[in-house]
Amino acid sequence: GWAGGYPEIVKENELFERYYRELGIVPAGEWDAFMAALREPLPATLRITGYRSHAKEILHCLKEKYFRELQDLEVDGQKVEMPQSLSWYPEELAWHTNLSRKILRKSPQLEKFHQFLVSETECGNISRQEAVSMIPPLLLNVNPHHKVLDMCAAPGSKTAQLIEMLHADMNVPFPKGFVIANDVDNKRCYLLVHQAKRLNSPCIMVVNHDASSIPNLQIDVDGRKEVLFYDRILCDVPCSGDGTMRKNIDVWKKWTTQNSLQLHGLQLRIATRGVEQLAEGGRMVYSTCSLNPIENEAVIASLLEKSQGALELADVSSELPGLKRMPGITKWKVMLKDGQWFEDWKDVPSNRQTQIRPTMFPVKDEEKLQAMNLERCLRILPHHQNTGGFFVAVLIKKSPMPWNKRQPKVHQKLPQRTGDTEVTAANSDNGSECVTEEPRLAENEESKKIQELQNSDTEQSKKEGVCGPPPSKKMKLFGFKEDPFVFLPEDDPLFLPIQKFYALDPSFPKMNLLTRTQEGKKRQLYMVSKELRNVLLNNSEKMKVINTGIKVWSRNSDGEQFGCAFRLAQEGIYTLYPFIHARIINVCIEDVKILLTQENPFLSKFSSETQKKVKDMAMGSIVLKYDPDPEKPDDLQCPIVLCGWQGKTSLRAFVPKNERLHYLRMMGVEVFKAKRKEEESESKTEEEVQHRLAQTEEGMDVEDKEHDLVTKMEAETGEESSHSPVESSAMEVENKMEDLDQSSKNANSHVSQESKDTDTSNVKD
Q: Mind listing the pLDDT tens digit for each residue in 268-314?
């Protein structure tokens, strides 16, 4: 039958069944249950962000309010079961429900719950993540001091988990560790940035490289340059994805063994590059959302064999109690897409030896096989706990890889840096280089020696028929031209008024402040941790950085007359707050409600205590702090820090819309109806504006018109369009619409219905 204009996908694939039956990855007697589970839609799962101080409040809100409202509810004839916490996830922070994502999005009865999920996800307080996808970061055992590399990070849900682990102690604004999140796809890198930004961490950097040839980075250690080795590496490689059939139903139609055969080589190269960059004693988690041993055990076995004892599989059977898992397998066969089986490399005809490689077969030597402990890998089957299919292996590095053993470390004294220190994202468009001067000669001679050693090792490994390290590739640069990262120099006059205005603590690390502009006015100030600054300064030429740093201050032209041109930014306030000693107003819970529900409330609406504090304070940017009262357990029991602005007669909060809704929910304020009214007024405003725009005279070309409107919007909203104060209220939208309408009349232009839709939706966004 046809549903929604598309033919319904039949959830059958004879080759898939034949292949996995033969391999025996499913225990005897469970095949029918396994196939039945694959044909069922995947249940919706969510994870509460663990490091936020208000994680307990969100959990309380979910259990006491939203989950209770789901009780005894029927949707499309299906009874909604009460959501259950995942037994193996710590502290009840992950939940699953029998609702599919489709039902959750479409059903009117669930609109309130769905809106809650969308809004809280946008704030970074919860993550809608598949259950099995949560496993690899948990098995990495990340501590706040660890240097972490996520090799194939997009879309970023696992990266978010890693960032949370770095910030396990909320009282430490700058953990010593960091996460470098990489992806080969430039566009997916921006998705990754969007995910990571929700967590407001100064310890994350997004880079754009081919994971199989990601460059060695260097850091300054006591004036010497040393190669950066990571304590933890997440290697979640591209895969055929047959474990995702429950949500990606296209896999049913497209599945063939060819996918695995084509990906095996890439997976092995990425994993090899990962273990090369792992520190001794470090831990790397290799994972796929595939059930196929060619992509799983075959890669691990090949990696262990060529490591010659440098790597071992960790026994994680006691970790994550409650997680049902199957051990890794030690025997498997290789099948072509025409159904032809091969048990040994020597049986493969020469015309098939480009498709099938020796590393795809299990190790024949029983002693070697036993020493590998492949049963320590774990495979998650869909029918065991109503999840997707997944594979995970945890590797420990005991010594350097055999081909790296003779490689000397690069020891090199660094010159003292002075003045404006600039780091530029490597980019082929402008041939940009690092401005800081470094002695190149010694390094070049040393790197030549290293290259010769690598080449001789590679030649040796070729003779032995063992796949050595991946070949060094020239980095391909593509995508958008990135702005430079310019650190503020010690004596920058920009900083002194900021330091004075906010009475910043002497311990404030001003050397970690950066901007994204070389010339002209600095509009935004960002902050990174000391360790990421070290990475940025020493690797600008070999690394394409997409994004790093958390916004802490934004230029405000009105502020200059009050003594400081920069106002505080909400996304960086939790990082900055420990260093600020002035312009802090402690407010009660009723004041917080007023700040978050009213556009620009008069001072007279606030409590007398707040009014007294504000009276003696100059106009400008302020910090609004709420501390919970333990004697009032019914009130919100987690602290809140908000950025605000004190005017002559009013006080307002500068908080993004979804974050505002989040705090109101936590305080028990009903935001559902208010949001509906707001949306209705916004859509009404849109219709009026479109009607007015339609009456404008003809004249200018449509493209010129669109360009003018976009230019005007950018000039008005600047870089802060997505975080305007008390965002997207109907009044603001209407004002912007009127401005745009006026500009369109002045330009005597005619806009088609299509371009009007585009313009108005852009403004709303």
A: 999 999 999 999 999 999 999 999 999 999 999 999 999 999 999 99
SS3 category, 393: strand
Q: Is 279 exposed, middle or buried (0-12, 13-18, 19+ CB in 10 A)?
A: middle
Task: Give how far Cα 511 sits from Cα of 230, 437, 488, 496, Å.
Answer: 24, 19, 7, 13
Chain centroid to CA 161:
8
Q: Is 154 a known ligand-binding residue?
A: yes
Residue reference for tokens 């994550």:
320
Q: Is 243 assigned to a binding site?
A: no
Residue 708, pLDDT above cutoff 90:
no
**Packing angle between helix 730-746 and helix 753-764, nearest 10 degrees?**
140
From the list 123, 203, 289, 643, the catalytic residue is 289
Which 3 state secondary structure label does DSSP give 551? strand
Helices (H), ranges, 399-513: 440-463, 495-501
CATH superfamily of this structure's domain 131-329+374-403: Vaccinia Virus protein VP39 (3.40.50.150)
Contact indicator for 572, 720 with CB cutoff of 8 Å: no
Helix axes 157-166, 186-197, angle to 10 degrees: 40
Q: Tell me the angle at which helices 672-694 and 753-764 cross, rounded to the nearest 10 degrees.
A: 140
- Buried b or exposed e, range 367-395, using 16+ CB within 10 angstroms: eebeebbbbbbbbbbbbbbbbbbbbbbbb
What is the torsional sign of CA 255, 256, 260, 262?
A: negative
265 annotated among ligand-binding-site residues: no
**Residue 210 marked as a ligand binder:** yes
Residue ranges covered by each domain of the chain: 43-128, 131-329+374-403, 583-672
Residue 153 annotated in ligand binding: yes
How many other CB atoms sit within 10 Å of the CB of residue 110?
22
List pLDDT tens digits, range 526-572.
999 999 999 999 998 888 999 999 999 999 877 677 778 999 999 99
**What proportion of the chain, given as a percentage, has pLDDT over 70?**
76
3-state secondary structure at position 527: strand
152 labelled binding-site residue: yes
Structure tokens at 271: 């994993």
For the question of residue 235 being annotated catalytic, the response is no
